[in-house]
Amino acid sequence: MSIRTKEILIAGIILIISVIVYLGKVYDWFGSAQFSPTLSVIVIVIIFLALLYILIRTIQGKLIDRRTVFVFVGFAVVLPFFMSITQNIRISPEVQQVYNAMSTLQPGSKVLISFDYDPPSAPELQPMAESFITYCLSHDISVIIIGLWPQGPQQANLALEIALENEAVKAKNPQYGINYVNLGFQTGNEFVIQRMGTDFRSMFQTDYSGRHYDDIPLVKNIKNFSNIDYSFNLSAGYPGTQEWVQVAVDRYGLWMGAGNTAVQAPMMYTYLNAGQLEGLLGGMNGAAEFEKVCGITGKGTKYMLSQSFAHVVVIAFILIGNVAFFIGGRKKKLDV
Amino acid sequence: MEHVALWVGAFLTLGIISFLYKDNPWYKLSEAIFVGISAGYWFVVLFWDNIYGKFWVGVFPSDDSGNAPDYWLIVGAVFGILMLLRLISKIGWISRWPLAFIVGCTSGLYLINYFSSNMMRQVQGTIIPLLGTSFDLPVYDIIGNLVIVVGTFTGLIYFFFSKEHKGAFGGAAKIGIWVIMVTFGASFGYTVMSRMSLLIGRIDFLFGEWLGLIK
Amino acid sequence: MRREVPLMITGIVGIAFVLQYFIPHWPFSQLNTWFSDWFSIISAFAIWLGALNLMKISFQKITRKKSDWGYSVVIVLSFIVIAVIGFYEGESFREPGTNFSWLYEFVYTPLSATMFAILAFFVASASYRAFRARNLEATLLLVAAFFVMIGRVPIGDNITSFLPENYQLSQVASWIMTFPQTAGQRAIMIGIALGLVSTSLRIILGIERSHLGGGD
Asked: 10 Å Cβ neighbour count for A220?
């Protein structure tokens, strides 16, 4: 059998299995797949032994094929979804800083949230958005949503849907236009922020659904940033937190915290340290920590086990490569 | 329709993932769809949000909006059309005018913003009382403040290539590169975290939304 | 005139933006409004230029039957489909339930998210093959990456739970991010800002002309 035929055969088998599992989901043939704690431990031991085997092979000078590395990463990410292991998440100071800032807000305060990301960044930023809005609405803090990315307001609506299902939020019975509003997307990047600093209304003449600015009780008296009590920016790139800091914070004195993807979070520590940001949530661990401090169990917490396993696997491969490098170097010196 | 949607999403996701095995027609097809759809997506979004939403609605506002026509927006539209003339090689030189406008805008804006926020405020943030204003900082924070001051200073010295890195200057530059290496290591760690998070999101889609194995 | 007019435009616009920061009143406030609106419109046309250029190149590939021209057909068809649907659906093209939003949610989003997601695999593979502590600098990078990666996930504290709280891996990772990492980032940020300020000044004053391109 040629390699091409084998590949097509394997792809066909995977397709058939996928169809069966999908039909099982539709007709509820199977329950949820969950490993028992014992099975979870066995899986971890097997992965550990496999890594040990790779270490031995690498020391022997036989670097494994990169596709084997891919398989390990795949298992490290997939298997934890089925494991029943709880983790203790510790809150970092910058996440606590966001929570402390929000704790000082009185009922009736107005918080501006800027959704500057798109669905590819949602695994990191959406849990932050959901827990932030849930906290605000459950503590009588009004939420004004805008977006500098076209998909931002759509992500905001998804986060609002989740927040409005929370029992503590339901108890407050928040009303659109009074307790929260989605003003939608505005094109113009940092120019939008600049214009909002002097005249909010000129940038958002209607909300996401077309309702006029002056007909929305929550925002009709908001002239500029001085009417905003706290701002939170969810950012995945440009325009994002850096532009908000440069224009809104440094020029107009807006009090602001931020949630960033892990790629750009390290750069934001400079702003945090200089006092330009009041708190920072970085990446998925930031989202999980914020969920914990708010007392919510969301996707950030759910994904952390996979994140832990993935990090351990990457570190294991780095260490394996370096151990082999050092031992290989020493062997060469001894031979000489 | 939901079934079709899930299978289309899964087909395209797995098509991209198949590249991990090797380059293949399934991946190339998914990639071509991605290129076409991305270009088309931004083509449509920018038309409705910018060209129609800003220009057309600004120049021809509806009666119930209460806004007067802003004919100055026509200048922007003219510049925009000049930009498109780049496609015609004989008169493509005219696209330099709108390009010059864009470059002028960003230069003027960034000059002030970066000078203020990324330079002056950062220098201000580095001039800190090492022992705290009341000399009451814990040792952990004192060492940290020292690291920030020394690290920032030596990092900047490293980037100063107009003087040879010799002697005391070279020693300071050496410390600077060590600090920068720690920065890059931390950035690498966070980058790994970010990529893994995106992968976790996709796995949640495949095994959760598509196959229903994750509840 | 082919170079002088663009240089003048750059200079006038750049100076106007610098001045409006210090004098946010008329006429600079009005100039700010005009220029920012024109910027939005022109940048839309710039993206249009890119998209139309892509179509031009794809058509050339199809007509000249270059290798893999079939995929260029797919590119063109995908573009036309989403463009036609997007224009046909009008201003509310983005509303949930429209065909455009269906294409966005189930075609564009999976593709773009997965493109970024597979980088996770390559990061792991590249780390295994190439990330070596060959010298002090590389070792520092590796050690910092190790502490940050393991300290930023709960498993780090599980491993070092026997240590006092302040010495556990999450605290070490926090210290690295708050102090040495911030110092290095700040040095880089100030360096970039200095370079950007000097380049912007050169562009506004017409000393730097590379953005105009070569030739006439």
From this structure: 13
ipTM of predicted complex:
0.91
Distance, CA of C88 to CA of C82 (rounded, Å):
10
B84 contact C CB<8A: yes
Is the separation of the CB atoms in A189 and A243 below 8 Å? yes
The domains of chain C are located at 1-61, 67-117, 121-178
**Residue A68: is its pLDDT beyond 60?**
yes
Contacts A280 to C, Cβ<8 Å: none
Put simply, the answer to whether C201 touches B12 (Cβ < 8 Å) is: no
Domain count, chain B: 1
Residue B11 lies in a domain: no
Taking contacts as CB-CB distances below 8 angstroms, the residues of chain B near A123 are: 197-198, 200-201, 204
What residues does A250 pair with on adjacent strands? none
CA distances from A61 to A14, A56, B184, C152 (A): 34, 9, 29, 32
The reported pLDDT for the residue numbered A331 is 60
**Cα separation, A206 vs A213, whole angstroms:** 5
Contacting chains of B (3 CB pairs or more, <8 Å) are: A, C
Contact B47, A181 (CB under 8 A): no
Is B183 at the interface with chain A, CB within 8 A?
Answer: yes
Residue B103 covered by a domain: no
For residues A203 and A188, give the distance between their C-alpha atoms in angstroms, rounded to a whole number. Answer: 10
pLDDT by residue (tens digit) across C75-92? 999 999 999 999 999 888
Q: How close B138 gets to chain C, by Cα (Å)?
A: 12
Nearest C-alpha in A relative to B11:
A15
Compute the residue count for chain B: 215
Residue B156 has pLDDT above 70, yes or no: yes
**Distance, CA of A98 to CA of C162 (rounded, Å):** 29
CB contact under 8 A, B117 and A282: no
Question: Chain B residues with CB inside 8 Å of A251's CB?
Answer: 116
pLDDT value at A336 more than 50:
no
Contact predicate C186/B126, CB 8 Å: yes
Report the alpha-carbon distance of residue C72 to residue C65 in Å, rounded: 10
Could you give the C-alpha distances from C16 to A246, A267, B85, C26, in angstroms and in order? 18, 30, 27, 12
Helix axes A93-103, A265-273, angle to 10 degrees: 60
Q: What percent of chain C has pLDDT over 70?
A: 99
For the record, the structure tokens of A204 come out as: 């958002």
d(CA B124, CA A274): 7
Scanning B13-72 for CB atoms below 8 A from C yields 13, 16-17, 19-20, 28-55, 58, 70, 72
DSSP E strand boundaries for C79-184: none
Rounded to an integer, the average pLDDT of C15-23 is 92
Question: What would the pLDDT profile of C110-161 be if each residue is shown by its tens digit?
Answer: 999 999 999 999 999 999 988 889 899 999 999 999 999 999 999 999 889 8
What residue has token string 């979070």? Answer: A265
pLDDT score of B201? 93
Instruction: Please state, in angstroms and rounded to a whole number, the distance separating the CA atoms of residues A25 and B209.
Output: 10
The answer to whether residue B107 neighbours chain A at the CB level (below 8 Å) is: no
Q: pLDDT, tens digit, for every residue of A160-216?
A: 999 999 999 999 999 999 999 999 998 889 999 998 998 888 888 888 888 888 889
Q: Is the pTM of this model over 0.80?
A: yes
Q: Is B196 on the interface with C (CB under 8 A)?
A: yes
Q: Is the dihedral of CA A203, A207, A212, A216 positive or negative?
A: negative
Domain hosting residue B213, numbered range:
131-215
B212 found inside a domain: yes
Alpha helices in B18-165 (DSSP H): 25-46, 57-59, 73-84, 96-113, 121-126, 139-158
C-alpha C169/C-alpha C172 separation (Å) is 5
The percent of residues above 70 in pLDDT, for chain B, comes to 100
Tokens read off for C55 = 């179509």
